[in-house]
């Protein structure tokens, strides 16, 4: 028979000993290109200073996800009739979606659009990019090599006690495959302009940090 849990027991066990419920608003992320990638220099041609802009993108981030994992299964028939068994066949990492609030400079759009243009091997010279006679500015060229444009995307889950990092998950070799449309409307004069970005990656590597028993 289940034992009822009082509010006092909850506070004692969860708040006092485990630090309380996790806060969904405490997190940060970072994007690290490989040592041989030229993506930082190429995006600088479009006015994007990689390290500085990432700091502001953390401020403008409205929502991010620690992606889940799904197993595909294969059904195996047993000798006993009517008792099929589902066995794991392959592991699938869910796509990662995030949403940003756009500032007046549309930084989230400019950053991820520049990244996508880098994937498409668009002319990095900003003057040529806006030249309507330059076919390469429209992406009419061969795409870059995979290792040039993928980056390690790290999400750090923070908590209120001493801003402690409790979970660090790295999405290995991530890259944005979709920058969503930005809706505009006269009916939303006091609303926020938001941008959704979706990313592919190879696998997610979690690193768990030890949480103090009695966090200060």
Description:
The chain has one domain: Pnp Oxidase, Chain A (Roll), CATH 2.30.110. It is globular and about 70 Å long. By secondary structure, it is of the alpha+beta class. Helix content is 23%, strand content 32%. The strands form two sheets. Strands 1, 2, 5, 6, 7, 8 and 9 form a seven-stranded antiparallel beta sheet that branches. The two termini are 35 Å apart. The model has no long low-confidence stretch (mean pLDDT 82). It has six helices and nine strands; from the N terminus they run αβααββββαααββββ.
Strands, helices and their partners?
Elements: H1 7-18, E1 27-33, H2 39-44, H3 50-60, E2 61-63, E3 69-76, E4 85-93, E5 96-101, H4 107-119, H5 126-129, H6 146-149, E6 151-158, E7 165-179, E8 194-200, E9 203-208
Antiparallel strand pairs: 1-6, 2-5, 3-4, 5-8, 6-7, 7-8, 7-9
Q: State the distance separating the first and last CA atoms.
A: 35 Å
- The percentage helix is 10-25%
CATH fold name, please?
Answer: Pnp Oxidase, Chain A
What does the largest sheet look like? 7 strands, antiparallel
Question: What's the helix count?
Answer: 6
The secondary-structure element order is HEHHEEEEHHHEEEE
* Structural class computed from helices and strand pairing: alpha+beta
CATH architecture descriptor name = Roll
Total count of domains: 1
Rg for CA atoms:
23 Å
For this structure, what is the CATH class?
Mainly Beta
Q: What overall geometry do the principal axes of the alpha carbons give? A: globular
Q: What proportion of the residues form beta strands (DSSP E)?
A: 25-35%
Question: Which whole number gives the mean pLDDT?
Answer: 82
Low-confidence segments: none
Count of distinct strands: 9
């Amino acid at each position: 028979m289940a034992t009822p849990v009082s509010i006092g027991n909850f506070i004692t066990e969860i708040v006092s000993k485990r630090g309380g419920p996790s806060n969904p608003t405490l997190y940060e992320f970072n994007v690290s290109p490989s040592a041989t990638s030229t993506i930082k220099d190429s995006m600088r041609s479009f006015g994007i200073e990689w390290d500085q802009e990432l700091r502001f993108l953390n401020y403008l981030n409205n929502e991010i996800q620690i992606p889940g994992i799904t197993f595909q299964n294969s059904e195996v028939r047993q000798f006993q009739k009517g008792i099929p068994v589902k066995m794991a066949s392959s592991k699938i990492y869910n796509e990662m979606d995030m949403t940003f609030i756009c500032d007046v400079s549309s930084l989230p759009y400019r950053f991820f659009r520049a990244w996508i243009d880098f994937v498409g091997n668009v002319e990095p010279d900003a003057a040529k990019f806006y030249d309507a006679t330059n076919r390469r500015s429209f992406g009419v060229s061969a795409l870059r090599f995979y290792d040039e444009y993928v980056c390690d995307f790290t999400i750090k889950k923070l908590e209120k006690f001493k801003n402690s990092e409790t979970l660090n998950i790295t999405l290995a070799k991530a890259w944005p495959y979709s920058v969503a449309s930005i809706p505009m409307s006269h009916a939303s004069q006091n609303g926020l302009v938001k941008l959704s970005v979706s990313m592919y990656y190879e696998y997610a590597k979690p690193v768990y940090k030890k949480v103090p028993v009695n966090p200060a």
